[in-house]
Automatic annotation (TrEMBL):
Native species: Aquamicrobium soli
Keywords, sorted A to Z: Hydrolase
Protein name from the UniProt record: protein-tyrosine-phosphatase
Catalytic activity, EC: 3.1.3.48
Keyword field contains Disulfide bond: no
Length: 270
């Protein structure tokens, strides 16, 4: 499994990385079946002033430590990015990292209120060549009331990432209900842990994988926990990454071979 949303660089948001916690999170993830993980600390203007300049050195240092301790987890750069007026400029100049240097990045809208002109903002990002992945829409307090906005964002080309714990009830009944609705309506592109620590919000995916496989089949679970995340890391075509039913979806020209090549490229299996 591949986890594209994890705060494994523990406490980097607070300016002092907890290395021991990061290593323990890596051990937990590997034991749970995770092979690759994106390091995605917050980037929030005025609150969490992270950038490529702070994230990359911390990620490289942690990767070296994991290798020294024979922990087989491959780390990839990323960030949990909040809306800002200069976001496109910062993506273009590289100060805001995308996922593994691809066109994809995690975009976290405000939790409490629907930001004005969100669709226009997302459209400008797409026109600039970047694909915003909407993080945990099922946990946004306004999402159920404005579900048509979530649907339109998916339709114009935004993959939807659901938190693994949401399908297990970890974030309350409302988040679980919305996650299930999105699954039924084929709006979920992939799952991630959004792990924050070793006791609460752990970096685990296997229980959610089993729940999705049990309800929708192992093939769908593989798409959402392995193949689509691998394709994102390999900068794959956006249409392939959308859940079935999205209006921007198209069929990859090389069928299942396309999927295998992305997985092999990212995981190093061929």
């Amino acid at each position: 499994m591949i986890d594209l949303h994890s705060h494994i660089l523990s406490n980097l948001d607070d300016g002092a990385q907890d290395v021991a916690m990061s290593v323990e999170m890596a051990r937990m993830a590997v034991a749970d079946g995770v092979t690759d993980m994106a390091c995605t600390p917050h980037i929030v203007p005025g609150k969490y002033p992270n950038s490529s300049a702070t994230i990359l050195p911390a990620m490289h240092a942690l990767q070296a430590l994991l290798e020294a301790q024979n922990i087989p987890l491959k780390l990839h750069v990323g960030a949990d990015v909040h809306i800002a007026p200069d976001l496109i400029e910062r993506l273009l100049n590289g100060s805001v990292p995308t996922l593994n240097g691809s066109r994809y990045f995690l975009l976290e809208p405000p939790h409490e209120i629907l930001p004005p002109k969100l669709e226009d903002f997302v459209t400008r990002l797409l026109q600039a060549g970047f694909v915003p992945i909407i993080t945990h829409p099922e946990r946004l307090l306004w999402a159920a009331r404005h579900y048509e906005i979530i649907r339109r964002l998916a339709d114009i080309g935004c993959p939807m990432q659901v938190t693994a714990g949401s399908v297990l009830g970890a974030f309350g009944a409302a988040a679980t209900e919305l996650a299930q609705r999105m699954l039924k309506e084929n709006m979920v592109s992939f799952f991630a842990s959004d792990g924050h620590g070793t006791t609460w919000r752990k970096p685990l995916l296997s229980e959610a994988y089993a729940a999705v496989a049990g309800r929708f089949g192992s093939e769908q679970a593989e798409q959402m926990f392995v193949h689509r995340p691998a394709a994102i890391l390999a900068n794959g075509e956006p249409g392939y990454l959308m859940a079935p039913g999205s209006t921007v979806r198209h069929t990859p020209a090389t069928g299942s071979g396309f999927v295998r090549r992305f997985v092999h490229r990212v995981l190093g299996n061929g």
